[in-house]
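Workshop exercise sheet. Pairs work together: one partner reads the sequence aloud, the other fills in the structure field after running the prediction. Swap roles for the next sheet.
Pair: D.N. / O.F.
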Amino acid sequence: MRKTCERCKRTLPLDDFYPCSTAIDGHRGACKECKKADSSKYYKEHREEMMIKQRAYWLRVHGPPKELLTKEERKARDDACKRAWRERNPQADAAHKTSRRALLSGLLTMQPCEICGKSQNTNMHLEDYSKPLEVTFLCPSCHQRFHWNNHLSLTEFRELMEKV
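Structure field:
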């Protein structure tokens, strides 16, 4: 099916128009190209105003940047975030506490990273929160890379890292 753009008057396929739930045919009147040009022009003309609105929205949603907070305010905000995470993830929190206690009591001992072999500052990674004593030791960079590739199992991730 095709439609004529109300701005440039070209007849184009419907894929060249953004969807619009209030339009009769379900698509905006202007084609994507014209809409992008309009948006770009509007942004250039109203840049300062839009930046002020975006900053106000960001401050309303996220609060002031950490640099503008006192040490006590930063600590209170960080504590509130940690408390909220614990409330949303009670099973994960309990598993982390159990594995930390096992480490402190000597039931678990720190090991080198199971991916790269680095032995300093390793993290305990829990694959299954119902098994808090089955931990994998990963250095911070391997741990971060693993979570970036969280669609992989730990075994698949190890194989991937061996190839790199």
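Discussion prompt: The helical segments are 32-45, 47-62, 71-88, 90-105, 140-148, 154-163. What would you look at next?
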